[in-house]
Amino acid sequence: MSTTEDTPDVIAVLRDDHRHVEELFQKVQDHARFRDRRKELVDQVTIELVRHMVAEEEYVHPIVRDAADGRGTVDRAVAANAAAEALMKQLEPLAPTDEVFDRVFIKLMAATHCHVADDEAQLFPRLAAACLPTELRELGEKVYADKSIRPTRPHRPAPATSSDDPLVGRVPHLIDRVRDALAGNH
Ligand SMILES: [Fe+2]
Questions:
Q1: Which residues, chain by chain, have CB under 5 Å from ion ligand 1?
Q2: 123 C-alpha to center of ligand 1: Å?
Q3: Which of 180, 185, 176 is nearest to 88 (CA)?
Q4: Reduced to 3 states, what is the DSSP secondary structure of residue 134?
Q5: 155: part of which helix (H) or strand (E)?
Q6: Residue 13 burial by Cβ neighbours in a 10 Å radius (0-12, 13-18, 19+)
Q7: How many whole angstroms from 30 Cα to the centroid of ligand 1?
Q8: How far, in Å, CA of 146 to CA of 89, rounded?
Q9: Tens digit of pLDDT for each residue in 121-173?
Q10: CA 10 to ligand 1 centroid distance, Å
Q11: Residue 112 Cα to ligand 1 middle (Å)
């Protein structure tokens, strides 16, 4: 696979995912009074988070698991992803008017904050130490080439928007549908 100096490396791609999800969380908070829009945004958070976690599981965890001191980092990341998915499943059937919605949403936001902090302090430095810069760019290219998990934001020519994303609005069982759709492509 050919890459150039302009090809974003996988760490840049995944950091952009983190910033994008943080922006979506902020939008959910900003739309506290707009219940319908809030639900749509939470579904988008779920899709983006699952895509991001699958990209890390597929392309990052195997490398870091084999790196020095990497196994514990990956084990913690896998456990954290499972906890976040459990919260997303709790959130999925809830309406924004439901009294437990905000409680579960805040837990998911906190779990995501921990995911981001752990990735950026532990996982990404270990990945960077285990790979050459060209290998990191090749991984970044692979994430973009993988139609099922590539980011929907316009980091480069946009592959899709939330309005034409076939995964948006397919609730209930959104997480399982996303996971199944991604598994079918690997
Ligand atoms: Fe991450």
A1: 119
A2: 9
A3: 176
A4: helix
A5: none
A6: buried
A7: 23
A8: 25
A9: 999 999 999 999 999 999 999 887 776 666 665 444 334 444 444 444 433 45
A10: 11
A11: 8
- Residues 79-110: pLDDT tens digits? 999 999 999 999 988 988 888 999 999 999 99
Structure tokens at 126: 């270990």
Contact 20, 151 (CB under 8 A): yes
Q: Is 50 helix (H, G, I), strand (E, B) or coil?
A: helix
| Distances from the Cα of 159 to the Cα of 36, 43, 49, 164, angstroms | 25, 19, 17, 10
Lowest-confidence pick of 4-8, 62-66, 92-96, 132-136: 4-8
In tens, the pLDDT along 28-52 reads 888 777 777 888 888 899 999 999 9
Residue with tokens 């829009």: 37
